[in-house]
């Protein structure tokens, strides 16, 4: 066993890999008014950029995961950063709306690999005592990207225009790529890589999400005092287990609610509660800040051995309460209810991905991590693509935001029921 060399440098690389893909979309959103005016497009056409991005990410995660399993960490990280840089650079090239659509699609493809390869790096290069905690930090890369782009793109666009800002931002992934080459070569795997057949954790993910044997090692989980820690795992089935698909379904449902809320939150604040444009934008920023804190916090809870399905149930119920607060704000016009809803949304729905990835880390061998993570992430991105379209149609109908929030509540209710089923299955399995 080699000495632990995993430190802040590697953690920064993992966070950067998760953050660079969404950078273009958040930057475009932050300068949307200038882009709409410059290109002469309407709001629906601008919204299509997000749909194309998330759809490409969903397809990429679903189809490229197994391919990723067969390539090295360095090769996959190189692909991530180069495609992200290409997307930003293409957005900065003078051209029409179609060019921007293509750039958005490339940005989505850049989001097809990060979860799988970063999870595999955690399994192979980071000690078990650090893994779950690091998941929370690296998964917060999406919210970090949102904050950085929302602050920097509008300021730089005043000086360089939105295209010049995109071109300048294209350098960021290249700098991160250079750092990645240096760091990954200095942090070797802790153990020789094993294939799925020889790994003692080669069984599919348990629906409990409880800590069991660590993939790639014969030692019990650092977090596990439960009886499930020593429970034998079944032989790995062909393809992905039912539990992986269940996690993907939960991610899809949660993703619908997340993006239906994120995309239309500022508009709701401005239109229904008479917030200013700046204060309306602040609602999304606050949700992002709470989301970063939530992801790190929920990762720490998972690291202490909490049950994955139980946490998913708590998060689903909290998100449902948040939608109730949105409906209350819609009915009464009280700003306090809106801010309560924003905090509940950030603390719950935005924290789901770290729980999903932590469950995978507990139960999937490194040889299958990229493909299994790809399936779950594809589920999330499918939800991301559906949410804004569905919410937009409902908001523009006679039912307005009231109907939209009721629909989001229905989605979170379904995710609550799915979490109950997963928890029930876990309890039945532990009782055998």
TrEMBL record:
Positions of transmembrane segments: 46-67, 166-184, 242-265, 277-298, 310-331, 337-361, 373-395, 401-423
UniProt region (Disordered), positions on chain: 192-235
Domain of life: Bacteria
Keywords: Cell membrane, Membrane, Transmembrane, Transmembrane helix
Membrane topology annotation: Multi-pass membrane protein
Subcellular location: Cell membrane
Single Gene Ontology MF annotation: transmembrane transporter activity
Residue ranges annotated for the Major facilitator superfamily (MFS) profile domain, each copy included: 5-427
Pfam families with a match to the protein in the record: MFS_1
InterPro entries, per database record: MFS, MFS_dom, MFS_Efflux_Transporters, MFS_trans_sf
Presence of keyword Lyase: no
Primary location group: membrane
GO cellular component assignments: plasma membrane
Ranges of compositional bias, category Low complexity: 197-235
PANTHER family linked: CHLORAMPHENICOL EFFLUX PUMP RV0191, PURINE EFFLUX PUMP PBUE
Protein name stated in the entry: Arabinose ABC transporter permease
